[in-house]
Amino acid sequence: MSDPLYDELLQLALEAADRAGRLLRDGRPADLGVAATKTSPIDVVTEMDIASEKLITGFLTEHRPHDGFLGEEGASVTGSSGVRWVIDPVDGTVNYLYGLPSWAVSIAAEKDGETVVGVVAAPMRGETYHAVLGGGAFNNGERVRHRPAPPLSQALVGTGFGYLTERRIGQAEVVRALVPQVRDIRRGGSAAIDLCDVACGRLDAYYERGLNPWDLAAGVLIAREAGALTGGRPGEPASQELTVAASPEVFGVLQPLLEELGAWHD
Ligand code: IPD
Ligand code: CA
Ligand code: CA
């Protein structure tokens, strides 16, 4: 049975992601540069990240003035409705800056702290992924499922690297240990798209340490609703410490291996 609140949140998230996606795709200045840096000199923000977040929060506030917000570029509102929007206005900013196509707008809605709606729009792919809690996962309205699991040795595994040198050294060590044990590794540059690629059967698995709530909220719901398993360290939910998403059999092997390799610490 569909919940009218979830339906409303989904329609708003789809519309906001579509508008922001069009702004980013059609309004990208040819000479786009770095507007500021954040946690390190390679953690960049462009004027378009800021414009996208402004568009999304403006649109959502207009329709639901009492909701809370958490956005990567500074949106932080408590709200009084029990609904909070978790927004990454451009996931894959470095790709966007360089004119590479793998970037997305990621919008999740939480109700009383639980993610109930996730939308990831990837305009250069012409694809929008979405999920509502308990309702399955979709790509452009078509239902998607994770891939039938191969043995780990034939698994295609996505990952990503943080912006801090110390963290990257640890992440490189984990990849060094993993790459001889799997089919191959992909570093796409957008955590939200990586999670949706698990949902669509384009990756067998994805893991990363250091994700923020806006990177993972929508994509984790979409992967889970596509039948994939998601988590962090064994027994834990996906978090900043570690995020893992994979078809169930691959998850069962990869999660303990990542634990053993120390993928959850720097
Ligand atoms: C980043 C991307 C990248 C991941 C980083 C994220 P941003 O987000 O998702 O794939 O490896 O951990 O921070 O900075 O492009 O929004
Ligand atoms: Ca991000
Ligand atoms: Ca971002």
TrEMBL record:
InterPro entries: IMPase (IPR033942), Inositol_monoP_metal-BS (IPR020583), Inositol_monophosphatase-like (IPR000760), Inositol_monophosphatase_CS (IPR020550). It comes from the Bacteria. It catalyses: a myo-inositol phosphate + H2O = myo-inositol + phosphate. Its EC number is 3.1.3.25. PROSITE patterns: IMP_1, IMP_2. It is an enzyme of class 3 (hydrolase). One of its GO terms (molecular function) is hydrolase activity. It holds the Pfam family Inositol_P. Keywords: Hydrolase, Magnesium, Metal-binding. Its cofactor is Mg(2+). PANTHER family: INOSITOL MONOPHOSPHATASE, INOSITOL-1-MONOPHOSPHATASE-RELATED. Belongs to the inositol monophosphatase superfamily. This is Inositol-1-monophosphatase.
